Amino acid sequence: MSAYVTGFFLSITKRLDEAEARLANMQIIGKVAEVNKDKIRVELGQDKDGKPVLSPWVQAQAPAGAVAANIPFKVGDPVRLLSPNGEIGSSSLAVRDSHSSAAPNPALAPEDLVVAYEGCTVTLNKEQIVVKKGENSSIVLQNDKIILALGQSSIELSDGKITLKSGESVVELGADFTITAGKVKHKDRNIGADHKHGGVETGGGQTGAPV
Question: What fold does the segment set 3-96 form as a domain?
Answer without folding.
Answer: OB fold (Dihydrolipoamide Acetyltransferase, E2P) (2.40.50)
